[in-house]
Protein 1
Amino acid sequence: MADNKKILTYEGLKALEEELHELKVVRRKEVAGKIKEAREQGDLSENAEYDAAKEEQAGIEARIEELESILKNAEVVVEEEVDASTINIGCRVIIKDLEDGDEVEYKLVGSTEANSLKGKISNESPVGKALIGRKIGEVVDVESPVGVIKYEIIDIKKSN
């Protein structure tokens, strides 16, 4: 059976807890109000508002269940205790593409928190996998759709 453990940074844990609270306290009430309103309009068999509200409710309940499962099985990385001599979850790293010389900074996080638009890459991504356990000055090869890309590790630092 697959391991259900999800690795989270403290920041990621807080964000998921806030989302869960928002869904349970605010969104559930909003959708219940929409359903009540739609019911009051009469015939439910042809009531698009009712159907949409019930779909929204199902989506919210599914997300609540997913968040509760993630939080129940979460392994939280204490970023202050991360050893910045090697790359691990919770580190910020600067890498340089050896082909074009571009440098980019990433924060390495668990898959649940990954968001490339915010510079957060998963430890399970091709780049993340290649970086885990490496040190400053090392060169890593990353498989990509366009071929192998070589990156040099320029800097590692704690993310706080």
Note: The longest strand covers residues 147-158.
Protein 2
Amino acid sequence: MTVAIPIQAIELTPGSQIVIHNLSWQDFELLLEDLGEKRNTRIAYYQGTLEIMSPLALHERPHRIIAYIITTILEIQGRIWEDFGSTTFKRPDIAGVEPDTCFYIQNANQVKGCTQMDLSIYPPPDLAVESDVTSKTTLNAYVSLGVPEVWIYSNHKLTIYILQADGYVESSLSPTFPNLPVTELIPRLVQQAINDGTSQMLRELRALLQE
């Protein structure tokens, strides 16, 4: 006998995840509705496989700090950007994912006025940031969405993934910030923010960039 359990009844402990296989796109859409907007989980769907992740509180802070670092650098460089946070991005019937945070930079002008994300109208984000997420489902979803650059921060290390014709490849350089050693800079600044406070770290970063 099959027993149906409402998705809201499933409680994930922080740092845990569940994987559901053979889930249709229609079921995925219904599940998103059941989960609602106000939740502390992240989802990734790719060709029938769904991952629901509940991040640890200590893993939430790094990606917020990284977002502050990114916007500070962009501001100093005089560039425009749009921060779309953990917006749900979907490629119907294939993939869906919610970044920890994401940015439109090269395509910032193209998402002006956007209040509901639709990838048939708008381009994918230029840069997505994930904290402690290394699942194949998540990266496959990003490939399907066409996100050109993904940063994954894990174990005090930043890994940059650049989209190529056959998927993501690791890179030591960021196309978004080609003149900055971000794989060295980001981990150091995240730890500095944790030790000394985010505002102090950002003030020092601004001073460094403006020299």
Note: Residues 98 and 120 are 17 Å apart (CA to CA).
Protein 3
Amino acid sequence: MDKIELIKNPVAAELNEFRVLFDSSLKSDTPLLNEALNYIKKRNGKMMRPILVMLMAKVFGTLNESTQHVALALELLHTASLVHDDVVDESNKRRGQLSVNAVYDNKVSVLVGDYMLATSLKHAAWSGKVELVELVARLGQELAEGEIIQLSNTSNEDFSEAIYFDVIRKKTAALFVASAESGAISVNASKEEVELSTRFGEFLGTAFQIKDDIFDYFPNPNLGKPTGNDMLEGKLTLPALYVLNTLNDESLNQLALRIRALEATKEEIASFVERVKEEGGIEYAEKVMYEYRNKALDILPKSIDPSLYEALTAYIDFVIERKI
């Protein structure tokens, strides 16, 4: 059994029910909107975050309708944020496929994202738990705040890992935190169990984002992005921050600031990428990523069902070993 099958195995039946619910939620009587929603449905991926909601629910109780509706609310919010991000970043591709704004235009994309956000909140309300509505709303705030912090950081002259991890907590990790936390809340887990789920989600989400950042240093046609794409957008991630802080090389620092200011050429960015790789930036990022992987697994209760422990272990290993 491969990792994906191990991950899905404890929630296979519930995941099939979820996919039906997901597809039925993305419909409209307005032809253009319905067409765009159908395009999004065709592109939906492995449903990793809804699976995490379900796994955490099963760790602490019995999966139920509240679990399904909050999993859908989070997946819709996540998908809407990606649609909006592609507009902000002027990206034409998402994971190797044309983005919604590339197929339609920015106006349609923003409105489709807005429609999905509203649908997300509707399903959060259908969960029947005000804590889950608050959780989904809080996640929406954190995703927007993380994007703003990242945009404002382009003018920052410090190469701070603390700011980098703050952005992760409010963007990528926030989604995993909300997924793990909501799964526990949906089955009436104790306060201590919810807190454990929250920490697990944060460690998992941080490892996920570090892996994404490592991807940026290598050509990957599956991602539909060129090497150094983050730096083309003025973003300096963990491998670069480590090298900049370790070497404290003035000429390299100045080039990094020019990258942040969107003033560096593609050739300069390519040179910067190679320097970061030569100076151990990738190895450092991988070490930190595995530290977060181990912290996530260390806090799981030893008493949980072996199939769930195996699924969650496979989940985080898939996150750090994935090719896309």
Note: The first strand starts at residue 93 and ends at 94.
